[in-house]
Amino acid sequence: MAGTILVADDDQSIRTVLDQALSRANYVVRSTGNAATLYNWVLEGAGDIILTDVVMPDENGLDLLPRIKKIRPDVPVIVMSAQNTLLTAIKATERGAYDYLPKPFDLKELLQVVERALSKPKKSYRRGGQDDEDDTKIPLIGRSPAMQEIYRVLARLMGTDLTVLISGESGTGKELVARALHEYGKRKNGPFVPINMAAIPKELIESELFGHEKGAFTGADTRAIGRFEQAQGGTLFLDEIGDMPVEAQTRLLRVLQQGEYTTVGGRTAIKTDVRIVAATNRDLRQFVRQGLFREDLYYRLNVVPLRLPPLRERAEDIPDLARHFLTQTQEEGLPVKSIGSEALDRLKKHKWPGNVRELENLVRRLAALYSDDVIDTSIIDQELAPQVANGAGDVNIEDENLGTAVERHLSKYFAAHSGNLPPTGLYDRILREIERPLISLSLEATNGNQIKAADLLGVNRNTLRKKIRELDIQVVRGLK
């Protein structure tokens, strides 16, 4: 084996480690610090593999990449960059890079990528029309190693329709990742349709997902389309998938297997063309063991697992995130603020149980409530102390009455529609949702005795029997 490796980077350590590792295989390393020399070498036919930095004195490596791939499409090109943003990773992948390495990287990792590229060279994959993306619209912020790995995985997924399962604690930005997959992917011209399983009453989930026909159930006065139909040609984001009832899991599995579904009350199969991205803050593997989540559905969704790290695992990203949120508040008309270096250090030591969402809320409070141009440590301590002492953000529902609980649940339900209205017939559907547990618990309390249950509820016995049939409630006599 013999060949040439072209390196366009001023870092001498890269050339040294490649020389030492590959000289035994008779590979020669040629190194330069500018794009023009690299391009001339490529024109001469040199190079079995190319390593290039993004920032060079005469040209951007990402701009040079398409020209290299045009004349030498089969040569693997590895892009290295200190511009560690999601957009850099996406552009490198879209313009044909074999791999993308954010700086600083472990030289052992570089060797592994080089050896893999030499042993199994890949065909390039190019997509047009991506050169004018706006760097200011990058949806994810952070240059930590944990986020760099996320960027690399996302970049590789942009040109695919693979199903992705995003896991992570609440507030880590799971929907932002899902939106990035959509907005920078092959379905970006289609709709992005989110649905939060935790916010939809379980009796309504199938109707919400698949739609229903007129007359399918009480209150279904018109035909309503579901989220699958709304997302046709685009991306369907199933948030908090762990809260999906088992019955709805079965229907979802059938859709993923067969690529078609029927509306509630419908008979005609409808072909579906959507990319599925799911998210959860639960341990679905534990749910599978407990029988709360279908194992076959788990593996259908977990084609590409993606774990978002909590903010405490990437504390080095906090200054960038804080500055990003301050910029947003300024664009919204709030006064210009900055956070002192010691105050930033204090933020980095906080545990952030609410993750990025908690940090964003804090920054917005700082911008709105304090007149100081520079936020210092005393202000940060004042803001964080009550949260630590009182457990801010916890919802105490022990003393909550039924009306408040229903209002809270319905507020989440309306919010899940992102400003749009739910399907018509909401009144009857909500009453049906409340009736089922009310009747079931009443029957359980009376040991399955329908006469006693009817008396307890204050309804006619025939009315109770009708409701039991309509709601498909299982009556077991002699319950303890």
Automatic annotation (TrEMBL):
It comes from Sneathiella marina. Keywords: Activator, ATP-binding, Cytoplasm, DNA-binding, Nitrogen fixation, Nucleotide-binding, Phosphoprotein, Repressor, Transcription, Transcription regulation, Two-component regulatory system. The keyword DNA-binding applies. The modification 4-aspartylphosphate is found at residue 53. Residues 140-368 form the Sigma-54 factor interaction domain. Member of the two-component regulatory system NtrB/NtrC, which controls expression of the nitrogen-regulated (ntr) genes in response to nitrogen limitation. Phosphorylated NtrC binds directly to DNA and stimulates the formation of open promoter-sigma54-RNA polymerase complexes. It is found in: Cytoplasm. InterPro entries: AAA+_ATPase (IPR003593), AAA_lid_NorR (IPR058031), CheY-like_superfamily (IPR011006), Homeodomain-like_sf (IPR009057), HTH_Fis (IPR002197), P-loop_NTPase (IPR027417), Sig_transdc_resp-reg_receiver (IPR001789), Sigma_54_int (IPR002078). Residues 4-118 form the Response regulatory domain. This is DNA-binding transcriptional regulator NtrC. It holds the Pfam family Response_reg.
